[in-house]
Fold this sequence. Notes:
Helices cover 29% and strands 24% of the residues. It contains 14 helices and 19 strands. The strands form four sheets. Strands 12, 13, 14, 15, 16, 17, 18 and 19 form an eight-stranded antiparallel beta sheet that branches. It has a five-stranded antiparallel beta sheet with strand order 5-6-10-8-9. Helix 11 runs antiparallel to helix 13. The longest helix is centred in the last third of the chain and has 15 residues. The site of flavin-adenine dinucleotide has 34 residues, from strand 3, helix 5 and strand 10.
Amino acid sequence: MVPAVDAATLKELESALRGSILLRGGEGYDQARRVWNGMIDKRPLAIVRVAGVAGIRASVRFAQTHGLPVAIRGGGHNVAGSAVCDDGLVIDLAAMKSIRVDPLARRARAEGGVLWGEYDHETQAFGLASPGGAVSTTGIAGLTLGGGFGYLSRMYGLACDNLISADVVTASGGFVTASEDSNPDLFWALRGGGGNFGVVTSFEYQLQPVQHVLTGFVAFPFAMADAVLKRFREVALEAPDHRVWFAGALQLPHIGKVAAVVMSHFGAEEEGWQALRPIRELGSILFDTVARVPYCVMQRQLDANSPKGQRHYWKSAYLSELSDEVIGLILTAMENTAGDLDQVMIETHGGAISRTAKDATAFEHRQVRFNLGIFGICTNPALDQPAIAWARSLYQQILPHSTGGTYVNYLSEGDDVHTAYSDARFSRLARIKARYDPGNLFRFNHNIAPA
Ligand SMILES: Cc1cc2nc3c(=O)[nH]c(=O)nc-3n(C[C@H](O)[C@H](O)[C@H](O)COP(=O)(O)OP(=O)(O)OC[C@H]3O[C@@H](n4cnc5c(N)ncnc54)[C@H](O)[C@@H]3O)c2cc1C
């Protein structure tokens, strides 16, 4: 039971901030409580739009004093809607956008409200980039804290593997820096353990030289999906680290069901065109966007497929192999979709992700080959339950063919967070949680209860 805190008391917090507080019924509140997933409809007691670390510390202390649970909002993209909550306090970092690039040291520091598109814009001014998500409107915070897979990951690792340090406001309102040398237990947990351990006010990343890339998607009629997914499997398994393939079976507005592959090739251009040949040879291409483009263009190429407000329910499963049986299950499910935009995406892992030591970070799944995302998506609330049932059903059929593990950042509301970690890793995370947040103040996340 969340204690009642009246509006006048909440307004007192405002005097301790450079930011502002949005209260129920007040201007801007309804817009501010909305997140990317249109299925989420939470009504926090208040949303605190902080402008800096001082405001975050004041908000955390206020929440402790009044017994209010806290949700932390970075980019607001998490499908579970854990950036917002019912009745508690939302600390919203959307206004915290500072990004400082040090091109000589090849490092960048970015505040917790930065989105990947904003980060890429600044770092690309120097021809540099860090592995980030494949959609430019996703927050750096949630993505990095859960692991963070992107086009550069087979070359340079996950987003969390490129984290050098993080500044954190803890549940007591204290402030610590986490790195290999300072609070290393916290630093370990922040790299894959999600938003459980405090409010990360800024992230310091390693940068890599990246400029142009040969990238795009090639789409085929859905009737060819079996051949497309099997050819994708061949090219994906043979790919060097500087090339990554995704595949999907999806429903596109005004087009209908298609099968598609996405290639991103960071090596010599001619080699990339050669690598694309086995895909193009399948013929009957509906559209083909592959071109040599600046890095930021690649980072936005899937944005249109992921607009804010559509209604999502996700399941995911890591696979050691993409067997004919799994392809068959995907195709049958896609023939019998329930949501008007249901889709399945397959990401390829391996490369630098697998070469990082298993226990170097809290992220668990370093040896898998594929991550299968099963996305129940609809535009009409009447289709919510059918889309959810569709995603759950396909997941249950895939489960015996999977490693049993899931990606914490793809878990939906109510999913078991334990599936994202082994028992040993989960226990270690719970012990670190007990040290930094013993009262579970930060519980609106894929929650790891304090040991
Ligand atoms: C369209 C789309 C594309 C995606 N693409 C990818 C992809 O390519 N690769 C990939 O790995 N993942 C991807 N994801 C998943 C993504 O990693 C998660 O949704 C992630 O949680 C988003 O981070 P956010 O900051 O936007 O989310 P939020 O919803 O703001 O936050 C997610 C969780 O992180 C915590 N959190 C947020 N900010 C902070 C902070 N500053 N300090 C502490 N905790 C914080 C909160 O507890 C919250 O529970 C994608 C998601 C979407 C919707």
